[in-house]
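Board notes (copied after class):
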Amino acid sequence: MAQPAWEKIGIYRGGIVPVVFQRINGRDYFELVNISNVGGAGSIKSVSIKGSKTVWLAMSRNWGANWQSNAYLDCQSLSFSITTTDGATRVFLNVVPSSWSFGQTYSSRVQI
C-alpha cells in the first residue's frame, strides 16, 4: 500500500505508527498471533518469536496476518522480530509480559 493511502487509514503522528500484536487463539504448545497496523511496506515477509527462556524461533504464516508458533512459551515474556516486504526488520523486545493469557491484546510503537 502506498504511504499516502496508509496514512489515511493508519494513525500517523510524528513518525510513529503503532503496531498491534493480538494473541487470538492457541494452546500450551501452539500460539496464533495476529499482527496488524504495520507501517513502512505495510505487509509482512517473516516473523520470529522469542520467549524469555528461548532463542529466536521462526513463525509460519497461518493465514492472512496470523502467524503461528509450535513452541511451549507459557509463563515467558515474548518478543517479536518482524521483517516487512521492503526488507526492514524491527525487533519488539518484551512486548508481551510473562503473565499473558490467550485472547489478550498487546501493542508496541515503532519509529519509521
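Comment from the instructor: The CA atoms of residues 5 and 42 lie 11 Å apart. The chain has a mean pLDDT of 77.
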